[in-house]
Every structure is written in C-alpha cells, then in structure tokens.
Amino acid sequence: VQLQASGGGLVQAGGSLRLSCAASGRAFSRYASGWFRQAPGKEREFVAGISRSGGFMDYADSVKGRFTISADNAKSTVYLQMNSLRPEDTAVYYCKAVMGSITFWGQGTLVTVSS
User: Fold this and answer.
1) Which of 39, 49, 86, 111 is the most buried (most CB within 10 A)?
2) Average pLDDT over residues 91-104
3) DSSP state of 89
C-alpha cells in the first residue's frame, strides 16, 4: 500500500482545511487508518484514528470537537476535516495505515495556520 496525502496549505486562524490520504493497492478496507502531525522541533504526535470498519474514531484531546476523521473504502481514501484551526495546529500532517504488524506512512502534507 502506498499513501498519498494532500490538502495542506496556508489558512488563517479559525479557518478550515480538509486533508485527504489516498491509498493505492488492494485491501485498503482491512487497514485501520490515522493522522499524525509533527510540528517544527517537536515529536510526531497522534491526531486522529479510525477503525477498519469506520465504526470507531479516536482523537487527541487537542483536536476533539474541531477535527473529524472519515474514510471512504470505495475510494481507498481517508479524510481529516479540520475546522476552527489554530496557529498551534501548524505542522506536517502524515497519514498512516495499519494492519497487524504492517504499517504504512504517507509522505506528509504541510498545514500552516496564521494568527
């Protein structure tokens, strides 16, 4: 599986962006997916995750109520809708797909939130 993240950009505080992570290869629906981010000088951190079935989602406390993760298995794509963006959301966002011990990472997309 190869993951291609897109949708990042520059947005003012309070604005919105939607990130997409398109997966190539088969059996995407067998993978749990998630988004992580890494700000300059900081470690990569969990942002949101979604189960294989799409029935369970989890969020970092810092984004709860503002971000929404979703998946479209027919399109092999995972989305991250980000609303009410804050300058502290500025980071490179990475998507991740996991099945058992197998993990794939996308290349990252930069989100910059100006104050």
Assistant:
1) 111
2) 93
3) G
